[in-house]
Every structure is written in C-alpha cells, then in structure tokens.
Automatic annotation (TrEMBL):
Pfam families: 2OG-FeII_Oxy_3 (PF13640), zf-MYND (PF01753). This is hypoxia-inducible factor-proline dioxygenase. GO terms for cellular component: cytoplasm; nucleus. Keywords: Dioxygenase, Iron, Metal-binding, Nucleus, Oxidoreductase, Vitamin C, Zinc, Zinc-finger.
Length: 363
C-alpha cells in the first residue's frame, strides 16, 4: 500500500465508514473519498460502498493510468480479497459572543439532510456545506464563547430516523443507570438520573446513529487545528441517554475536570415539540469567569458543542418528559496521551481513572 501525505480534510471524510474510528485510517484507492480502519472493514462495507465508489470513479479525471483488476469484482458483497478493482486502501496521514450564540435566533445554521434513497451526488451536496459551517460559524463561535449551537443539523427526515433507532434501542432494555467515572455506587443516582447505553455504531439497528456520528466527525474534522490549541485525534463511542421524565436531572458538574483527554463535548438532541416551561430539562451552562449562564433547550435536531474542561460547568435541570440525547466526546491528542501515561504509571490523581479500552463517562 502506498503511503499518502495529502491532508485534504476539506474533501475527505476521515473516519472508518463501517465503525466510525478515526485513528490509523486507510483510504479507498479507487474513489479516494472513503476511509477504513482495516481491509476487513472495507470488505464488510463493500456492498454499501460500491455504489458511491462507482459514482466517484466516474467523476474522477481520466488522465491517470487505468488500473487492471487483479480479481473479478464481487457485486454480492462476498469475502473476496481486496483488489484494485474493489479499491485498494492506502495509508492516510492524521488530520491534524457566548450567551447570544446559544439563543435560537443566532444559532440557526443550515443542516444537512439525507433520505433513505439518497444518491451519491446528493450525499456529496450535503457534505459540501460542512466546511463553511465549520470554519465560518463553529470555529469563531467556539473560540470566542466556548459554546456553539447548530439548529436543523440533519433535517427532519434523518432526525426522525435517528429518533426511531434510539427509541427502539431504549425498548430493548439495554439502558442502565448513568454512572460516574470515580464512583459506581447507588449514591450516583443522587447526582445524575439518566439511563444510558454506549454505541459504537456498527450494532444492528443503529445505522442512523452511526450516520449521525459520521456527520459529527466530519464537522469536527473540518474544525480541527482551529479550535483553541487542541489537536483533535479520536473520540469516545456515542453515549445515548434518556431522562425518563420523572423529574430527574444531573447536578452541576464538569465533563473533564482532571485532564482525561476530552476537549470538546458534542450533543445531539432528539426531542420533538419540546416546551421548556412545561417539560423542563434545560442544559444550563455556567461559563467560567462570566456572571451569565446559558440555557440550552434540548430541541429536536439541535447540535450543541462546548469545551469539556473546567471552563464549562453545567447541569441538566429536572425533566418532566422523556428526554433523549446522544453525546460524543472528542480527545485532544496530547492530553489523552498524558492521561493514558498517568493511568499506566499509577501517578494520576486519586479516584480518577482513564479507561483505555472503553470511553470514560462524564464525572
């Protein structure tokens, strides 16, 4: 496989198309638009990817040598070895005003939408607005205020599909009481009252959740290198959370108070016709050094980003209707490496553990 030194982050979607992983990626050598963490994941995803891959191949400039297939293409998604015809993967390098911005009137940005029958060129159109949204709105908003709200992120149709995935997942009974990193006892119920489950993205019935995670990844990737001094590299799984509507919330806390590596908290809300006066459930953020606070309503198809560290203590006020949200935390490469080193050497602060094989939960 040929190494690639090109970091065309404004064009490439640098996450594994199958599992959403962002580290140590390989690029499809045929369309050069899609990434995988391994050849095995490329093979597993080929049945879905081949239509987009073929469409991309048609639009590529034809002044390059024609590649001769080494093996026949498997249109049935079989387990044939990777070939140039199917698209060899090549190594890809690593990508390197607060209260007002939280108000609905100032936060609305065009979100992308996708139908179940969307064609490859329609998907490309939906991707095209992300760089502008990232660089012209999210980056300046985050750097100035540390909080950013994007409404209508995915559109009504895909948002409804994600909600269906989440409600179906909730009905399976796989949600458990939200826990704290340093304390996993019944007393944590006095601090947070949500029910949660962790999703990698490749679980059956979670396809639309995986799509949401990929859009989050795309957006953050376009911001990377411009958000403070962070170099974002990797993220947690998605935490799907439900407040059951019995008046439970989450007391004031900080997601990352002790340097576990998380730098950006990214939350997507799924609550249709939410009325904060009736249903409560506001996310109230208390920005460090400011006398004001920001109240974020958990509205349907709303995306919220904020710094995960001590700059943004926040609380979830009691919710009196079922309240769904999906949260992903993005890691700063240097801080995450230091956190892992502390964990391995045992020199970290007492009571703080950074899990190496699963994402940390908020404190």
């Amino acid at each position: 496989m040929e190494k690639s030194n090109t970091l065309d982050s404004d064009r490439d979607r640098q996450y594994c198309e199958l599992c959403g992983k962002m580290e140590n990626l390989l690029k499809c050598g045929r369309c050069r638009n899609s990434f995988y963490c391994s050849k095995e994941h490329q093979r597993q995803h080929w049945k879905e990817h081949k239509l987009i891959c073929k469409e991309a191949e048609k639009t590529q400039v034809t002044n390059q040598p024609v590649k001769t297939p080494q093996q026949p293409q498997d249109d049935k998604g079989g387990s044939e070895p990777l070939s140039q015809r199917q698209g060899d993967v090549t190594t890809e390098g690593r990508t390197k005003d607060l209260i007002n911005s939280a108000k609905e009137g100032d936060s609305k940005q065009p979100g992308d939408s996708i139908s179940n029958n969307a064609k490859p060129n329609e998907i490309n159109q939906m991707n095209s607005h992300l760089p502008k949204l990232a660089t012209e709105y999210i980056v300046p908003c985050m750097n100035r205020h540390g909080i950013c709200v994007v409404d209508n992120f995915l559109g009504e149709e895909i948002g409804q599909c994600i909600l269906k995935d989440v409600t179906a997942l909730h009905k399976t009974g796989k949600f458990s009481d939200g826990q704290l990193v340093s304390q996993k006892t019944d007393s944590s119920k006095d601090i947070r009252g949500d029910k949660i489950t962790w999703i990698e993205g490749k679980e059956p019935g979670c396809e639309k959740i995986r799509f949401l995670m990929s859009r989050m990844d795309d957006l953050v990737r376009h911001c990377n290198g411009k958000l403070g001094n962070f170099e974002i590299y990797g993220r947690t799984k998605a935490m799907v959370a439900c407040y059951p509507g019995n008046g439970t919330g989450y007391v004031r806390h900080v997601d990352n108070p002790n340097g576990d590596g998380r730098c950006v908290t990214c939350i997507y809300y799924l609550n249709k016709n939410w009325d904060a006066k009736k249903h409560g459930g506001l996310l109230r953020i208390f920005p460090e050094g400011k006398a004001q606070f920001a109240d974020i309503e958990p509205k349907f198809d709303r995306l919220l980003l904020f710094w995960s560290d001590r700059r943004n203590p926040h609380e979830v006020q009691p919710a009196y209707a079922t309240r769904y949200a999906i949260t992903v935390w993005y890691f700063d490469a240097d801080e995450r490496a230091r956190a892992k080193e502390k964990y391995l050497t045992g020199s970290g602060e007492k009571g703080v553990k950074v899990e190496l094989n699963k994402p940390s939960e908020p404190s």
